[in-house]
TrEMBL record:
This is Carboxy-S-adenosyl-L-methionine synthase. Residues 70-166 form the Methyltransferase domain. Homodimer. It is an enzyme of class 2 (transferase). Its EC number is 2.1.3.-. CDD domains: AdoMet_MTases. The keyword S-adenosyl-L-methionine applies. One of its GO terms (biological process) is tRNA wobble uridine modification. S-adenosyl-L-methionine binds at Y47, G72, C73, S74, D97, N98, D125, I126, N140, R207. Belongs to the class I-like SAM-binding methyltransferase superfamily. Cx-SAM synthase family. The keyword Methyltransferase applies. InterPro entries: CmoA, Methyltransf_25, SAM-dependent_MTases_sf.
Amino acid sequence: MRSKKPTPAPQMTDRLFATERNPEDFRFDASVARVFPDMIRRSVPGYTTIIPMIEVITEQYVQPGSHCYDLGCSLGASTLAMRHGIPHTDCTLVGVDNSSAMIERCEHYVALDDHELPVTLRCEDILTTELSRASVTTLNFTLQFVPPEKRKDLLARIADATLPGGVLILSEKIRFESDSEQNTQTQLHHEFKRANGYSDLEISQKRAAIENIMIPETLNTHKQRLLDTGFNQVLVWYQCFNFVSMLAIKNS
């Protein structure tokens, strides 16, 4: 008797900050996991472009017999994009997240995905998870939640584990050198959120919740650190307002 595929998790609308609430830091808990697909689609300009392009980039750079990692995999959007970009059956694909609520739902989406390549999910800290023989690694809006003083060590570990010819896909919210540009890009991002149905109260409360735990850096800071930690070329392949995605390449 053939087993039935799991029923898809219901897609819930993000209303977490729609009413006034006591200020507290943002957490990737069960309440966030339930609305995360809607939250990130309405909050991150270009997210629906970045995800399918991760598949394209993965297909270009993945190497036979290598490991691929999605660090901070949340519900597995990047993981599944990588999965569909890997043509080699001898590759290993690993998704890592320290939120058990995210991993639980990610397992569900992986099970629903019609693809033969196995996916290993780890509920653990990306700062200490084991990395080796990597050809493609993704940090998709993850590094910004890592304490700034620990970012260089994490990127050095990724670079050390990356095979010659391998890459890191790094997507981040950035800040700008110029206060004027920072203000303009922030305002445009807020208008993007309003166009997607978020109220001023939701925008304000979400901003207050994440400002102490999501610390953006300048594009130059990201590029120089990637070069300092062992990558040889860094290029921006996508940008919309204050959101960018970079490709860090390790020479063959």
